[in-house]
Each structure stands twice: as structure tokens, then as C-alpha cells.
Amino acid sequence: MHPIVQVSNVIKHFKDVKAVDGVNLEMQQGEFLALLGPNGAGKTTLVEMIEGIQHPDSGEIQIDGKHWKGHAHELHHIIGLSLQETHFLEKLTVKETVKLFASFYNLPNKRVDEVLEMVNLREKQKAFVDKLSGGQKQRLALGIAMLNNAKLLLLDEPTTGLDPTARREMWNILMQLREEHKISLILTSHYMEEAEFLCERIVILDKGKILAQGTLNEILTANNCFETIEFSLNEPVQNIGFIQNSGLGRVDWDDKTRKARLFVSDIVEQLPKLQALVQSNGLNLQTLECHKMTLDDLFIEMTGRRLDQ
Amino acid sequence: MQSPLLQLIIVQFKTFLREPEVIFWSLLFPILMAWGLGMAFNKENESVITIVQVKNDQYPDTSFRNFLAGAKEIRNINSPDEKALEHDVTIQGLGTTHYKIITGTWEQAYVLLKRGVVNLVIEEKAEGLEYHFDPKSSEAKSSYLQFSSILKGKQDELAQAMIKPLSQKGTRYIDFLIPGLIAMGLMMSTMWGISYSLIEKRSKKLLRRLVATPMNKGSFMVSQFVARFVLCTLEALVLYFFARYFFGMTIEGNISALIALFCAGFFAFCGIALLLASRTSNTFVANGIINAVVMPMMLLSGIYFSYHNFPDVVIPYIQALPLTMIADGIRSVFLEGAGWPELFKPIIILSTIGFVTFISGLKVFKWY
Q: Domain extents for chain B?
């Protein structure tokens, strides 16, 4: 069976900026894959090339074994997508908007009603698009993406800017879709928890390159990431060299928050040593947070920046 | 399920009809404008000439003072604390002229000249009356000639002259105006309705979303043009029937040639609109681009007043503008009884403009 998406050594420039820099990616049918990365990482450009909206400068993209060139009509029927930001026609109702898109796929009215049901917009079907909340607009975009029972769904930041309830509602719809239909999903996001919750495979992108990929555990294990101790000291210090040279683990110091982040293999073992070390330098811990390492932590460790920047 | 083309056309109409402001500006505003201008220029033969008298009691001019003696006192709207004088002179065939005389100093006269309230200042001097006005202004010249004739007692001569006022259809200002407004409506509706709407859809990423479906791009473009054509036709018909029933306008020439000219004009503007909308996704840039094309035509093409007042050297260029061709063509059918022989050339030129710009626009059109 063909991989549903095969991206081979794809490069894309915008003037002097290399938005996507030699990306290779393979995705199997039925897989849910998250593309994680900060703004400007190249997520949208990569997704839009997979969607056929943009064309790579070099490299090759195949969807279900087919290139966009010569198969555009066919591929449009097997993919569904939601762009990062789409403003549908404001003075059309929700149902009219879905109906318009349904007409492009030659779908019956019954399918329009089904989709409205799936994205919980039946009650809002007569509302004008400009009267919808942010979450409802995103669900409308998702509904339109789902219209044609696509084999491959591409959602570009579908929950950015939504409140936690609206985000959770989107996740539930996607989880239901995953359980009931054998679709494949590529989702771009800033949110690590979204990727963790929805997708079995995560690809971390930065500056157009893949930094890491695999399941969450695979990525964390491969990068020797286990746990972090985040702390601040009771007195301002200019230099935390005494911790850096202690051999406890790698330390990142944030000048703005005056907080340190210590990466350790085992908190239970290393925390008492840290406390002893701090006290022996005439200081005390003022704040302390211990947690298992997340993708956010990993990303910071890899790039020095946060995912949601 | 309806066909995508039909759906796209229906969507265009729905979005139009659900914007009351759009209906006002595209359908009602042209009627209000036609009504306002038509009424303003179709009043009974009455006119007003306002003059500033710079009084000099040392050298009173007898004829002027006699004229003022027959005047009544009225409120001076430019200075409510002061009064003005009004003397009405009615001459058979020329109608009534209300001469409003404001007495003041030279300083006051300059202010009123600058504000455009008056165009003639008369000063009493030892040698007689001195008339001050801008000789380049035809209106000021006319005020001078009329008033000086009246003071010289020539109204009887004027009254005896054989004056036959023109009142038959086709010679009134409204007859000149309505074809111009129809042509301008066609241009504005097409240029803004197509260009701006396409650029806005691009800026909101709707075009990008649409082309990521199996939608036929040709169907999308056709839907834009079909819907706009229906709306343009509706706007033109509303304006025509208003003028027909309110001002008694009729079409003297060949209707099929008129329809062909209207279609060719629409096609020309569609092509220009598509070309203008082909690249940018910034609505501020869109405003600038559309205005840069529309404004010169609006000012030069003789919509409100004849472009024959421009220097002879520029007239051939003005006549080559699409809006001028359409306005002149519609006028010739409405007023002169023109038909296919007269309209054949503008129809071919407009269609060619439409074809060239349409193809160029499609070639460089950016969907995302």
C-alpha cells in the first residue's frame, strides 16, 4: 500500500528565506501526525505544498502515490483541508456556506446536514458566518474540510486563538472522526498538548528543518530527556556557574524571569543534591517546580525558544 | 444538489441583497443623484445673480440707485445681522432673474468672491460704475452682461428679441445627464463589484480555500461576471425607467445596438477589473488602483458636463476612454436616434479592450 503522504527532500524559498529546507516525511494511511513548531518554522508552507496550494522549488511530494501535476482534480477529491485563517463570506449562512462547498464535490444535501451534525453546528445553520464565534468558525472550516469524506485531512492550526472549551470541542470532533472513519490527519500546531492528545506521531520543525520526529516517548527518549527542575533563588545571583559545574545536569538560565531550568535523569535522586548545593552557597530555593519533560521543554532545550513563540 | 456554477451565482446575489447599504449605493443613490441634478437644472426659468455694491455716496450712480430703489429688503444669508436687497427682473422668454445686491466694503467683497458667493463687484466711481469680475469665468461675464444691460435700460430690447426657449426632449440637461449616469454606473459597479470583491476574497484567503477544492476556476469567474451583469443591467434599467417616468425621457435610436454597446462596455470594464485585481491582496492598494483608473474617467468622460470644454488637443484622448465611448454611445442612441452604423466602431473597440485585458488578467491572476 502507498504511504498516504510521501515528502522527499522538499525545499521551498521565499526570496532569501528558506522556508522549508530539505524535508523528508512519510505518513501511512490512518496515521494522525502533528507538525509542531514556532511561528516561521515552515509548518504552513510544508502543509500548503502537500495541499497543492504551493509548489516546492525542488524535491517531490506524492499523495496516495500521485503527484499534484496531472492529478490535481483527483487529489482534490481525496484531501480535505482547513487553512490557518479563512474568512468565509460573511453574509452567507452556515448551511449555505457548507452547501456551496458541497456543490464543488457534487454532494447531496443530506451530506451537508450530516456534516453540520458532526461539527455541532445544526443549531447555527441559519446564522450568518459573521455572527459565529471563533470556535464556531473553526468548526465550520473543519466541517467543510470533512465534507468529501477525505482520505487525508490537513488542518493548519485549527485551534489557534480558541479558548480551552472550544479547543476541547474541536479535539472531541477529531477524536470521533478518528474512531469512526479511517482517515489520515496532518495537523499543525503550536500546542504540544494538542499534538500529544490527538496524534500518535509528532514532527518538530524549526527553520524549515525537521528537528525530531516519532511518538512522544520516542522523541523524548531519543533526546535523553526525562525530567526538569525549574527553580528560582531567594537572592538575585549573577552567575549560576556553581550549579552548571556541579555535574547535576544541564542548566538553562532565563534572565527575564530569573528562573533556572535543570534537566535531570531522575528528580528523586537529584533534587536533594540541588538543595544541598544551593544551601552550601548560602542561598535558598525560592520557587520550585518539578515535572516530567514535555515537548515544550525539549524544544527549548533544542532551540532556546518556546514552541508558542 | 445545484450545479457549482448556479450555486456560485446564487451566492453572489445573496451576499449583495443582504447588504442594505450596497443596495442603497448601487440602486437608490444614482436615482437620488439624477433626481437632484435633474431638478436643479430643470427649474422654471429662474436664476439668481448676486452682486456686491461697493457704495460711494460721493459719486452715486443714478441708474444703479434707481434700480436699488425698486428693490425689496431681504435677509442676507451670508451675514444674518445685515440685510441685502433683491430686485427681480422678468423678461419674456428669458424668465425671471433675482438680482441680490449686498452692500459692503472691498474687504467684504473679497471674502465673498473667495467664497464663490458672488462673481461680480460694482464700485461707484466719479467716472461712473466700475465692474470687477474674472473675465475668464463665463458665469461672471454673463452676470456682467446681463446686469449692465439692465442698468442701461435694455430689458425692453431683450424682451422684444425673438427668444424661443428649447424645451423639447433631448435638449435638456437631464437628457444629457441620464446616459452619462448609466455609463458611469456600469463602470463603477463593474470595477468595484468585481475588482474589489476579488481582491477582498484573496486578502481573506477565500480564493485560496476555493481553489483547494475541485471547483472549476472558470465557473467561479463566470459567476462573478454573470451576477455583476445582472446587477448592472438592473441598475441601468432602474435609472432609465426613473428618467422615463419622472422626466419623460425616451430612447430614440436602435435598442439592439444599445444593448450590444452596453454588453461591450460591460465586457471592457470586466476585463479591466480582472486585470486590476489580478495580483494584489491588499485592500488599501485595491482602493488606490481602482480609484486611479476610475477617477480620471469620471472627471474627463463628460458624465456631468460636456468634455468639449476641455482644450481641443486633449479631446481625442478623452474620446478614446472606455467610459467616454459608452457615455457618448448611449447618448447618441437615446437622443440622436443612432443605431448600428454609429455604434459599430465603439462596440468593436470596447470588445477588443475587454478581450485583451481579460486574457491578460487571467494569465497573471494570482489565486493565492
A: 46-165, 173-364
In this complex, the residue of A76, A81, A100 whose CB is nearest that of residue B7 is A100
User: Across chain A, what does the average pLDDT equal?
Assistant: 88
Instruction: Name the residue with cell 479511517.
Output: A182
User: For residue range B74-129, what is the model confidence (pLDDT) as tens digits?
Assistant: 776 666 666 677 777 777 667 788 888 888 888 888 888 888 888 899 988 888 88
Span A51-94, pLDDT tens digits: 998 899 999 999 999 999 999 999 999 999 999 887 899 999 99
Are A164 and A134 a contacting pair, CB within 8 Å?
no
Q: Can you say how many angstroms the Cα of residue B200 is from the centroid of all Cα atoms in its chain? A: 28
Phi–psi pair at B131, nearest 5 degrees: -100, 125
Residue B81's pLDDT is: 64
- Provide the chain B residues 194-213 that lie in CB contact (below 8 A) with chain A: 204-206, 208-213
Q: Look at A52 and A249; give whichever has higher pLDDT.
A: A52
* A91 contacts on B by Cβ (under 8 Å): 14-15, 18-19
Compute the mean pLDDT over every residue in chain B, rounded to the nearest whole number. Answer: 87
b or e along A52-91 (b: 16 or more beta carbons within 10 Å of the residue's beta carbon)? bbbebeebebbbbeeebeebeeebbbbbbbbbbbbebbeb
Residue B289 Cα, gap to closest chain A Cα (Å): 23
E strands present in B192-250: none
Strands B120-125 and B128-132: antiparallel
Q: Scanning every residue of chain A, which has its alpha carbon at the shortest distance from the alpha carbon of B3?
A: A103
Option in A89, A104, A128 nearest B215 (CB)? A104
Q: What is the pTM of this model?
A: 0.78
